[in-house]
Amino acid sequence: MLTIYGCANTRSSRAVWALEEVGAEYEYVPVNLMAGAGRQPDYLALNPGGKVPTLVDGEFILTESAAICTYIGDLFPSARLTPPVGTQDRAHYDQWCYFALSELEQPLWTIAKHTFALPERLRVPAVIETARWEFGIAAKVLAAGLGQREFIVGDRFTAADILLAHTLAWAQVVKLPLGHENLTAYAARLLARPAFVRARARERAESGAKS
Ligand SMILES: N[C@@H](CCC(=O)N[C@@H](CS)C(=O)NCC(=O)O)C(=O)O
């Protein structure tokens, strides 16, 4: 049985979305970050950064949302959430996963850190304007890469779409314009997928029930 440690409305939604897409059976363990549950020794033993998500599969422990989504995809090949290893589609899949984390997400995380996440004395409000500009550059690259296609890799939904759509939704929450009609339509289309709707409902229900 797979176990996912998460917290509603965070990057753990990516992992739960992937689990729902492949139809996996899984246990959801809420980690109440606001109450400091991520800093408890038993959780730090699983995830030394004290962050969510963490996936546990028997004795195997995995952190990092992109790695977790890829692991889930590879574990359930019939769901075709990850292109086969060694193919050009897999190389493009990797390209867009790394882009999601290192280019598209980074400015959003910078804004969050310097708005509320860092201790107040370490925040540098001036970087927020720079981060907004950087997001615009990354969004332009993604818009050009996507064009009028439905999905970012080939003609199939993959976990790269999960990472990208979740990150675009994050931008929308913090009121950063996506700036490109194809990105707005892409995000709306993907976030309406039944697996994402189920993932969000499960995270909210489990967090409310147990944390
Ligand atoms: N690169 C990591 C980032 C995970 C991350 O920062 N998660 C946030 C929630 S969105 C968290 O757990 N923050 C708690 C903390 O930093 O103490 C991933 O993608 O899994």
SSE blueprint and pairings:
Elements: E1 2-6, H1 12-22, E2 26-30, H2 41-46, E3 54-57, E4 60-63, H3 65-75, H4 88-117, H5 127-146, H6 159-173, H7 181-191, H8 194-210
Parallel strand pairs: 1-2
Antiparallel strand pairs: 1-3, 3-4
The structure holds glutathione.
Question: What is the gist of this entry?
Answer:
This protein is α+β, with helices and mostly antiparallel strands. The chain has eight helices and four strands.
Number of helices: 8
CATH fold assignment of the largest domain: Glutathione S-transferase Yfyf (Class Pi), Chain A, domain 2
Mean model confidence by pLDDT:
97
Instruction: Note the main sheet.
Output: 4 strands, mixed
N-to-C terminal Cα separation, in Å?
A: 22 Å
Could you tell me the number of beta strands? 4
Structural class: alpha+beta
Major sheet: arrangement of strands: 2-1-3-4
Radius of gyration, in angstroms, nearest whole number: 17 Å
By CATH, the architecture of the largest domain is named: Up-down Bundle
What fraction of residues sit in β-strands? 5-15%
Number of domains: 2
Shape: globular
The stretches of 5 or more residues where confidence is low (pLDDT under 50) are none
Report the CATH C-level class of the largest domain: Mainly Alpha
Tell me which ligands are bound: glutathione
List the secondary-structure elements in sequence, H or E.
EHEHEEHHHHHH
Proportion of helical residues: 55-70%
